[in-house]
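ENTRY TYPE: paired fold submission
RECORD: A
CONTENT: sequence, then structure tokens
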Amino acid sequence: MQVESFVEALGSEFFVGVPDSQLRQLCDYLYDEYGIDERHHIIAANEGNCVGIAAGYHLATGKVPVVYMQNSGEGNIVNPVASLLNEAVYAIPCIFVVGWRGEPGVHDEPQHAFQGRITRELLDLLDIDHMVVDSSTDADDVRNALDLWKEPLSSGKQVAFVVRKGAFEYGNKVNYSNDCTIVREDAVGAIAKAADGGLIVSTTGKISRELYEYRDRNGQAHGSDFLTVGSMGHCSSIALGVAINRPDRKVWCIDGDGSALMHMGSLGVAASVAPRNMVHVVINNGSHETVGGMPTVSRTMDLVKVASACGYPKAVSVSDRGELDQVLEEARGSDVLTFVEIRCAIGSRKDLGRPKTSAIENKNSFMKTIGSM
């Protein structure tokens, strides 16, 4: 189905979401049509944030909003759906569009496997009627479903379209870019080099893939790296837990801007504990690049000031490759919790590989390296 036909069939004037590669065509179309426009299209920090914005839209207009997201975000919507939208509370209608990663029988990455199995069960548990959209679905099917849901929506219930891979088509692929010059893969390599002898916790997506390939390319072992392949937004919390309990080791967190924004309260917690052996690096390209490249709000933020305001004793930003090694060397020698923002370009190698080891193997290797198993 052409994604334009899907959006037209939905009949909504407002979309808010967190980008998803499975919904790339929808994301590109919305960005082409609206850009980032507070009246029609907002990219939120996390899926719970989406639900809150959608609820406010309904309260202000009486209209039904659309929230789009990957199924991994279902966990983030449980609380606001159950305690805000639900018809037993405020009865606020909403249409969800959910990218179905890890669908049973469809090959996908390990972090999506369990979530994929329980995607529809979670919607049932949340009392959200839903319809699966695939390549055979057309706009009339969508309109027919919405006709059936007209009464539930008018009474304040929520509904969802669960989107299979290949369900949408769109003629234009948006190319996202910025003016930064540091290549992220170079930055990841520079961090790994500076962290020599230390431990690394890396975030979801291409950052972890690039770290894995750096080790392979240089004939290095992977045991000092924990690759956070799922649970977007939580790698700095994982790193904090490691740093607190292993004060004898330097712990480096390689975060991304989308991840750091998703659960930003973790910065305040890290600063309150302030482990002297932790370096929190945020590679900021102003985009959700791993899932397509749509912009994050970090492009309008000063992350260094945010970290400083949270209480990080030291926070710096670097946008020049020539200064990066020096900044990382200073962070390595620092004896206080340090925040480093690296502003980098959007883009990666087309032949970028994926880890050849399983998540369990990664965990066991990491724990054996630090002697915790």
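RECORD: B
CONTENT: sequence, then structure tokens
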Amino acid sequence: MNLSTGIIGLPNVGKSTLFNTITNLKVEAANYPFATIEPNIGIVNVPDKRIDDLASIIKPEKTIYTTFKFVDIAGLVKGASKGEGLGNKFLQNIREVDALCHVIRCFENPDITHVSNKVDPIDDLLTINLELIYADLEVVNSRIQRIKNKAQSGDKEAKKESELLEKVINTLNNNQLVNTLDLNEEEKKILKSFNLLTAKPILYVANIDENNISNPLNNNHYKTLYEYLNGNNIIPISVKIENEISLLNEDEKKLFLEELGMNDSGLDRLIRAAYSMLGLETFFTYGKIEVRGWVFKKGMTAPEAAGAIHTDFTNKFIKAEIIKYEDMKEYRDEQKIKDLGKLKIVGKDYIVKDGDICLFRINK
């Protein structure tokens, strides 16, 4: 499942450094606007302790985590929707991703320039939001003009689309993002075809001072942003600290996090949050050769999820044997789980759950 999250924000907020840290790719991270022009793409493992636990029980030859794609997109400036800075190129790169990770500067550093010459996280957030809104208004107004006559003539599908577009326009004109609209399933399906920028789910990353990592609310910039967003979809990260952590081995990393009073790194939380934001979940398979996580969309049936292993599995599906991760962790033996009646045999209507251990039976 090739879904991706684009890392966006104003220039010099820490986007490329964050991307370097996430992916261990050394892309350019310079102290001037537009150091990133072409989007950089990185594939990362999704941290999952459950895979480590299963591997400790099964002792396979290898373990394979689920993966997730991040795209580092060039910094945006005011007026991008009208071609300022990298303008349309930036906006087109955003259209090609499924979700957005908006990095917002919440640290003071006179040696790192800010495009507005001041650190103001709310203003930065609104600057980006408005450019996305302006770009979407252009798309929606153009679409309304194209279907106007059909809708007025009584064409049912055009009328439905026109009514939805009016909702969208009213939302955008009120400087609200389309992802705040409460839509039914039919409207969501129609909306998807427009590929609007503000319809994408957004996760906000507050790049804070390293001194505030243990208690982010001590950072006034972060506190202001947190309150503005009502604490929703926001993760505080010190990109500088995370970059240092990424250079350590696992033992050193664990010790460093303990010293900071943290159970896991901000990056691990970010990757998991981005994964979850797109409605992605994980099922497992295991054997002596490998323990492996497989990504699937929440709500998928067993045949649909089986397609993650091979597309043929969906059509050739017969049944699945399901063990809960919690049962394997507790009993540590497949035969014992069977004897206790905790192994389920399920059919085509079964909705796969996050953490299921699956063995799919298919027609040869």
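NOTES ON RECORD B: The first strand starts at residue 4 and ends at 8. The chain has 14 helices and twelve strands.
STATUS: closed
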